Amino acid sequence: MDLFADERRAVALGPGAVLLGGFALPVAEGLMAGIEAVGRVAPFRHMVTPGGKAMSVAMTNCGAWGWISDRAGYRYQGVDPLTGGAWPAMPQGFETVAVEAAAAAGYAGFAPDACLVNRYAPGARMAPHQDRDEADLGAPIVSVSLGLSATFLWGGLSRGDRLRRHGLHHGDVVVWGGPARLAFHGVAPLQPGDHPAAGALRYNLTFRKTR
Ligand code: MD3
Ligand code: FE
To answer: Which CATH code for domain 5-208?
Structure first.
């Protein structure tokens, strides 16, 4: 099935970064149901940074590996520290939309083994950072935005590089690979709102190949 219908926009945000506007809209309802199912097994929680502060974004994971942060640092692990059990498997439709988006952006054969699920309430933000805890930096990261819109910030390979802003909306997918893979990026504080599918919240799925 080709989800990349003609009316959807593919925009190069910059070298290696491809925005597939609305790519996940046809499956958004199923993704929302999957997020709810994941949250029942591995509850959303506010992880603590190595510096000891709780993150404003609530997180959980699905797939074989999950990203966690605590006083000891950042890492992927196969066991949820909150429950002591494995992370839930990726729900129906998660892997398919990520693999199809990657292929549409030129990355055939993307095989994600982790999906980090971020939940933003009004005021939640993500400070600019690099995603570099994955062993295979040749694989892209695929992000899917759901619910309220957010202002995404992204810069260059150095922390000091100027940040550009881009709105990310319900159903948007971005594939970050090649020269964009190690770009600094973050999310501005979420503005209050009411979304038909997500109420006062924004969700973001990031699919990663960690090994
Ligand atoms: C650019 N999440 O989970 S998604 C993260 O909206 C994260 O929750 C944000 O940054 C969010 O690590 C942004 C867009 C994104 C994800 C990964 C990237 C952009 C990226 C990796 C490299 C470069
Ligand atoms: Fe990130």
So the answer is: 2.60.120.590
What length is written for the chain? 211
Ligand 1: residue whose CA is nearest its atom 14? 143
Pair 144, 98: CB distance under 8 Å = yes
Are the beta carbons of 117 and 35 closer than 8 angstroms?
yes
Query: For 61-99, how does the pLDDT look when each residue is reduced to its tens digit (9 = 90+)?
Result: 999 999 999 999 999 999 999 999 999 999 999 999 999
DSSP-derived secondary structure letter, 199: B
pLDDT band at 6 (very low <50, low <70, confident <90, very high): very low
Whether residue 110 contacts residue 103, with contact meaning beta carbons closer than 8 Å, is answered with: yes
Distance 129 CA to ligand 2 centre (A): 6
Q: Give 53's contacts (C-beta < 8 A, 6+ positions apart).
A: none
CA 20 to chain centre: 14
Spatial distance between the Cα atoms of 149 and 26, rounded to a whole number of angstroms: 17
Residue showing tokens 């980090």: 116
Question: Which of 173, 33, 51, 46 has the alpha carbon at shortest distance from 120?
Answer: 46
- Residues 162-172 have pLDDT tens digits of 999 999 999 99
With a 6 Å cutoff on the Cβ, whether 176 touches ligand 1 is yes
Q: Which of 204, 207, 209, 210 to mutate to test the pocket of ligand 1 (most atoms within 8 A of CB)?
A: 204
Sorted by where each begins, the domain ranges of the chain are 5-208
The two tokens of residue 70 are 């605590």
